Amino acid sequence: MEQFAPRFVEGYARANRQKPSGIAAKETILRIHLVPLLGTRTLDAITPEDVQRLKHALMHRSPKTVNNVLTTLSVLLKTAVEWGVIEQMPCSMRLLPVPKSSAGFHEFDEYERLVAAARIIDPRAHVAVLLGGDAGLRCGEMMALEWADVDLGKRQLRGTSQQRRAAAYDTCR
């Protein structure tokens, strides 16, 4: 596992041009969860019991987090089969049920109070709140903004390029 993990990130995630956030998530899952628990095992020796131990080690994490770890392990093992590193999947993964949740939004009056507080505290905070709340930008998109993206005459922001978003995401990490 420990030897195959970097090969998986480079040859699978990066080669398939996954989003920087997806690559970072895989790297984190490998570094924090999979390599410490399964690092010394050969890929073909990972058993259903190992998967259950992994679930147990993650029992204080949310079901979604556990499922992300299990999915990463499953994709890693399937990739190892495709590349001829192992002959077959050594085990299967049963994901945990995840309760459906609704997206968290501020009520209009709460959002207006947030905008007002940010305006008082710091002009940069005020801009960040407006970019996130009114324009719907995420952290990486805000970080990637350049003056060339701003059209003051039209009062518009132009979309940022994928390359700059990727670089900005790295900055946010």
Distance between the termini: 25 Å
Main sheet: strand order: 1-2
Helix content: 55-70%
Number of helices in the DSSP assignment? 8
Overall 3D form: elongated
On the 0 to 100 scale, the average pLDDT is 88
So, CATH architecture of the largest domain?
A: Orthogonal Bundle
Question: How many domain modules?
Answer: 2
What is the CATH domain class of the largest domain? Mainly Alpha
The tally of beta strands, per DSSP, is 2
Q: Over all CA atoms, what is the radius of gyration? A: 21 Å
H-E string:
HHHHHHHEEH
Spans of at least 5 consecutive residues with low confidence: none
Q: Report the portion of residues in β strands.
A: under 5%
* Main beta sheet strand tally, sense and closure: 2 strands, antiparallel
CATH-defined fold name of the largest domain: DNA polymerase, domain 1
Quickly give the structural class. Answer: mainly alpha
